[in-house]
Amino acid sequence: MNPSATQQPRHPGDEAAPGTPGSGEDVCPVCSGCGKTPDGKACPNCGGTGRIVEGIGGG
What we know:
Elements: H1 3-7, E1 23-27, E2 51-55
């Protein structure tokens, strides 16, 4: 297992743990990368980071 995958928390919008082969970061589709909801709270999808981890490639 990739050591960085155990050091970063997973958020609800993540499809994979950070550092997982075949995955990469992308802008959170819920908050458009700002990390906040319209009422100023942390986005629940990305945990307030503005980024999610998702699978890359096709299949």
